[in-house]
Amino acid sequence: MKFPLAACVALTLVSCFRAAPVATTTPVKIKRIPPVVSPTPVPSIPAIATRATVEEISGITFEGVAFDSRNQRLVVADQAHGPGSQYADAAAAARVLGGSAAVNAGFFTPEGAPLGLLVNSGKTAGAWNSSSSLGGGVWYETPSGTSAIARREALGRKAATATRECLQAGPLLVENGHPVGGLEATKTSARTVILWDGGTRWWLGHGTACTLASLGQALATGQPAGWPVKQALNLDGGRSADLWVSESVPGGPVSRRPPWNRPVRNFLVLVAR
């Protein structure tokens, strides 16, 4: 059958512009990582005074030191040659660095190496712990002097290595005011923790023997320092637990280091700005 020229052209154009088949794709699941918690802007009110505190919450006794990061700061006291090579205990570390309080800090391997990243005055030690729950959180201070506690994945290795002070530990116990789910709920041990209200108020100290799950719940519902806890990070505990607060601090002196304690790799020391 013959077609007029115009009809032939029209048929040719239609065949050329037929819709191509649409490729089907499988939806990609995106893992959402909680953002870094930025310090809450603080109104122009006086900084809280540094003081030693003792508070019992849900059967756990919390003893430590409360302070304000506007007039106090924490520094990492690491021992490059291994546990006990420079500081016998928290008291010794604080005295050498001119601090008013100190606690044992990060986890370490049987050989004495840091189990996670450390930064002291911009100098790094250890390596970024990307898998173990013992490195799931990070306390850090930026070069500008701002301190915070963040989840490992939210801060990231690159940002962590650019800090002035940094300690990787874990697990996180409280995040954004809520207890972290899935924490170990059967093994009890003495605990060392650092707490933050999201602004400039901090607390550093010990909790008596408890599970991580009960510790997180107690910190999310109670107030060891008299203010709500927004972020809480677990540090090394058990036989490493060591707390010292100077007599110059109201409520001090405090010294909590049982005779069976072992030497540790590093400490967090509270010093004046």
Individual helix count: 5
Q: Using DSSP, what is the number of strands?
A: 17
Report the span from N to C terminus: 97 Å
Largest sheet: 7 strands, antiparallel
- Note the beta-strand portion: 25-35%
Could you list the spans in which at least 5 consecutive residues all have pLDDT below 50? Answer: 1-25
General form: globular
- The overall number of domains is 1
Major beta sheet, strand line-up:
1-2-13-12-14-10-11
Alpha carbon gyration radius: 26 Å
Helix-strand pattern: HEEEHEEEEEHHEEEEEHEEEE
> Mean pLDDT, rounded to whole units?
89
Q: From the helix content, strand content and strand pairing, which structural class follows?
A: alpha+beta
Helix content: 10-25%
Notes on the protein architecture:
There is one protein chain. The chain is of the alpha+beta class. The chain is 14% helix and 33% strand. The chain has five helices and 17 strands. A seven-stranded antiparallel beta sheet has the order 1-2-13-12-14-10-11. The protein has a five-stranded antiparallel beta sheet with strand order 3-17-4-15-16, covered by helices on one side. A five-stranded antiparallel beta sheet has the order 6-5-9-7-8. A hairpin with a 4-residue loop joins strand 12 and strand 13. The longest helix has 12 residues. The N terminus is likely disordered.
